[in-house]
Design brief:
By secondary structure, the chain is of the alpha+beta class. The protein has four helices and twelve strands; from the N terminus they run ββββααββββββββαα.
Length: 165
C-alpha cells in the first residue's frame, strides 16, 4: 500500500512514476507490501509480457507485481527511499512536494537471472551508469545501504563474504 500522499503520474522518461503530493518526512513509511499479492517463480515471470516483467520486483526467491501503483516506482542510484523491513520502504530523507519517489532496484533485485547490465540515466550524482544484479557485491554499495536492505540481500552479501574467505 502506498503512502496516501503519493500518486502515479506520467513521467517524461519512464512512462509513469510516483510523486509526492505533500512533504513526506524522513522515516515515514512510503510503501508497505500487500503480502496477499500473487508470488511468481522466475519461470512464471517469463510467461508475462515484457511490460509486465519490467513491473515485477524480487521478493525473496519469488517475484511480485504490485497492483497499488507502487509498480511504477522508478530506479535511482541515489534514491529517496530504502528498506525498513522485507515488506516496507521508508523515506530516506525528506521528500518534497512534487518530488519523484525512487528506490535502488538492486536493493531487492539480485537474482542471477538478471545478469546483463542495464543502462542507467537516473541523473543522481551517485549514478552508476550501468546497474546489474551483481551491484550488491560492491563494498561501497553495501556501506551506503547498511541496515536498510531486505533479508534476502543481506543473506546474499553474507554468503559472498564467506565465499571470499
Amino acid at each position: 500500500m502506498l503512502h496516501p500522499s503519493v500518486e502515479v503520474r506520467e513521467h517524461s522518461l519512464a512512462g509513469k512514476g510516483l510523486f509526492a503530493t505533500r512533504l513526506i518526512k524522513q522515516g515515514e513509511t512510503v510503501w508497505q507490501l500487500d503480502t496477499r499479492e500473487p508470488q511468481l517463480t522466475h519461470e512464471q515471470k517469463l510467461q508475462l509480457s515484457e511490460e509486465e516483467q519490467s513491473l515485477a520486483f524480487q521478493f525473496k526467491d519469488r517475484y511480485i507485481i504490485c497492483h497499488d501503483g507502487s509498480q511504477y516506482m522508478n530506479h535511482s542510484c541515489g534514491p529517496n527511499t530504502w528498506w525498513l523491513s522485507d515488506t516496507a520502504l521508508e523515506a530516506r530523507q525528506d521528500i518534497q512536494l512534487g518530488e519523484e519517489i525512487t528506490y535502488d532496484y538492486v536493493t531487492a533485485d539480485i537474482a542471477p537471472e538478471w545478469t546483463a547490465p542495464w543502462v542507467c540515466a537516473c541523473g543522481s550524482s551517485l549514478c552508476r551508469h550501468r546497474i546489474s544484479s551483481n551491484d550488491y557485491k560492491d563494498k561501497r554499495w553495501q556501506d551506503r545501504y547498511s541496515g536498510h536492505l531486505p533479508s534476502w540481500v543481506v543473506k546474499a552479501i553474507e554468503s559472498e563474504s564467506l565465499a571470499a574467505k
